[in-house]
Design goal:
Number of strands: 5
Number of domains: 1
Oligomer: single chain
Distance between the termini: 20 Å
Helix content: 10-25%
Strand order of the largest sheet: 3-5-4
Shape: globular
Mean pLDDT: 84
Largest sheet: 3 strands, antiparallel
Length: about 110
């Protein structure tokens, strides 16, 4: 993090109220929060390197079909490939996450030993 301060990154998606939910129904609720720190702590699971791409990136697919379905259905669930990589504790390079239509977000994940 450029300013060397900790921060929280999060997102959520809940059903929209009333008639909006009829126009864009969502199959489930989803929320995530990550505490990002400039240096590893005793509770760190992974070190992340984030890069924005000036072109859209095709999101890294998930092997688990139910998670892949959720990733497509809920915009906030675009982070699922990152959560899976952190949970598995394995290094992953050049993971692409859904971000903006004209921009990609590429992530490298390194487990903290």
């Amino acid at each position: 993090m450029p300013d060397r301060a900790a921060g929280v990154a999060g997102g959520e998606r809940l059903a929209l109220p009333g008639p909006l939910n009829t126009a864009r129904p969502l199959p489930d609720h989803f929320g995530v929060a990550l505490l990002l720190t400039p240096a590893a702590t005793e509770r760190s699971l992974s070190a992340l390197t984030l890069r924005l791409s000036s072109s859209p990136a095709v999101a890294t697919p998930l092997r688990e079909a139910s998670l892949e379905t959720l990733r497509h259905a809920l915009p906030a669930a675009a982070v699922l490939p990152l959560l899976v990589a952190i949970a598995q504790g394995a290094a992953q390079r050049h993971m692409a996450l859904g971000y903006l239509p004209a921009m990609g977000l590429l992530v490298d994940v390194e487990p903290v030993v």
